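Severity: low
Component: inverse-folding endpoint
Summary: output formatting inconsistent between runs
Steps to reproduce: submit the following structure tokens with default settings.
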């Protein structure tokens, strides 16, 4: 009977530790969410400022990246090699 009570006490303790770990993870997730929301707000503010600086009648041309004329970075020497 004592073994059963000890096992129950152990399981209850493990369950409390698990609940505490879950709460800690939730708090950390909330901190990360707040940080990303702050960065999103900063980016939105920057974009609005840039949009306000552009004359409304002027068109903006977005050029594609010139990816086919550049060489990829080599995984061995971490430089732009002559071979792929």
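Observed output (run 2 of 3):
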């Amino acid at each position: 009977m004592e073994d059963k009570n000890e096992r129950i006490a152990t399981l209850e303790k493990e369950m409390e530790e698990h609940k505490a770990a879950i709460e800690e993870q939730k708090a950390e997730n909330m901190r990360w969410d707040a940080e990303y929301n702050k960065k999103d707000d900063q980016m939105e503010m920057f974009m609005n400022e840039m949009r306000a600086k552009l004359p409304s009648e002027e068109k903006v041309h977005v050029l594609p990246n010139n990816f086919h004329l550049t060489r990829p970075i080599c995984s061995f020497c971490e430089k732009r090699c002559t071979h792929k």
